[in-house]
């Protein structure tokens, strides 16, 4: 009896009607997927070509152009994906207009995070308009994340730290931006020594190094300021501080070079004496 009932059910099922409809839906989904993929590729290609042409014909800030380029690319992708999903759901028979107009669904969407997304987008545009940071800038975000901005999107800013790690930060959570790439940076080198009698030797060695190296480092702006002697806060030993301003991006190399040169010169002076 069960076998007979199943056979009767399948015989009554409208396979001839359902089959073509199912095939038609599958074909439409595949076709629209390919079409929107091609639209996305074409749009990104045109955006890239337009920015390349604009960069060659205009003198503009490259970092700002890169930031705008990334933002427009991301926005284009979001728009294309939205219309692709809308079209495919319509093909599958979902009442998209009714769902969007439904207050209950809108409430659910807002509750699931639409408000957060809107805040991120608005914050991203404000950061861009106020030029707080751009792609390629070295920054400190919220006093804890340090690195170089490698991507700036509608929702997320990506910062690459010194260890190579990528930090993804939502734009609305960014409260403090310390941009290290906009002005000259202050570099201070504390040269320690033990005895007060060494003060003259240390100061003389520092001045000799400055006379020799400063002309070779055009990234150093202005003159070096020598201060001291003063006490080290931890060991209560003595130190002489050397301070100068360096163009952004070169502070670490300059500090390492001059620190090594100071210590080497002091050691050689003490050995000679």
Automatic annotation (TrEMBL):
Domain Mechanosensitive ion channel MscS: 117-182
Entry membrane topology: Multi-pass membrane protein
Keyword Transmembrane among record annotations: yes
Major localization listed first in the record, in broad terms: membrane
Organism of origin: Furfurilactobacillus siliginis
Spans through the membrane: 25-47, 78-97, 103-128
SUPFAM superfamilies recorded: Mechanosensitive channel protein MscS (YggB), transmembrane region, Sm-like ribonucleoproteins
Location of the Mechanosensitive ion channel transmembrane helices 2/3 domain: 75-115
Record's keyword terms, sorted: Cell membrane, Membrane, Transmembrane, Transmembrane helix
Single GO MF annotation: mechanosensitive monoatomic ion channel activity
GO cellular component term, pick one: plasma membrane
Subcellular location: Cell membrane
Entry protein name: Mechanosensitive ion channel protein MscS
UniProt KW Cell inner membrane keyword: no
InterPro entries given in the database record: LSM_dom_sf, MS_channel_1st, MscS_beta-dom_sf, MscS_channel_2nd, MscS_channel_TM-2, YbiO_bact
Family: Belongs to the MscS (TC 1.A.23) family.
Coiled-coil spans in chain: none
């Amino acid at each position: 009896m069960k076998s007979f009932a199943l056979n009767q059910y399948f015989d009554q099922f409208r396979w001839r009607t359902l089959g073509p409809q199912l095939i038609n839906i599958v074909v439409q989904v595949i076709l629209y997927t390919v079409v929107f993929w091609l639209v996305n590729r074409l749009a990104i290609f045109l955006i890239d070509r337009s920015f390349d042409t604009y960069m060659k014909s205009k003198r503009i800030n490259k970092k700002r152009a890169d930031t705008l380029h990334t933002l427009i690319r991301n926005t284009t992708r979001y728009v294309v994906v939205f219309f692709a999903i809308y079209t495919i759901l319509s093909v599958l028979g979902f009442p998209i207009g009714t769902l969007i107009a439904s207050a209950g669904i809108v409430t659910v969407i807002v509750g699931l995070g639409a408000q957060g997304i809107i805040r991120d987008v608005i914050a991203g545009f404000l950061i861009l308009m106020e030029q707080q940071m751009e792609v390629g800038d070295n920054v400190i975000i919220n006093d804890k994340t340090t690195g170089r901005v490698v991507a700036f999107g509608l929702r997320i800013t990506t910062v690459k730290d010194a260890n190579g790690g990528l930090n993804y930060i939502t734009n609305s959570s960014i409260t403090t931006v310390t941009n290290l790439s906009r002005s000259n940076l202050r570099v201070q080198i504390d040269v320690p020594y033990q005895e007060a009698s060494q003060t003259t030797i240390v100061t003389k060695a520092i001045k000799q190094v400055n006379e020799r190296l400063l002309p070779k480092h055009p990234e150093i702006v202005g003159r070096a300021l020598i201060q001291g002697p003063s006490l080290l806060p931890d060991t209560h030993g003595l130190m002489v501080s050397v301070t100068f301003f360096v163009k952004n991006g070169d502070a670490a190399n300059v500090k390492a070079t001059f620190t090594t040169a100071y210590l080497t010169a002091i050691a050689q002076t003490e050995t000679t004496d």
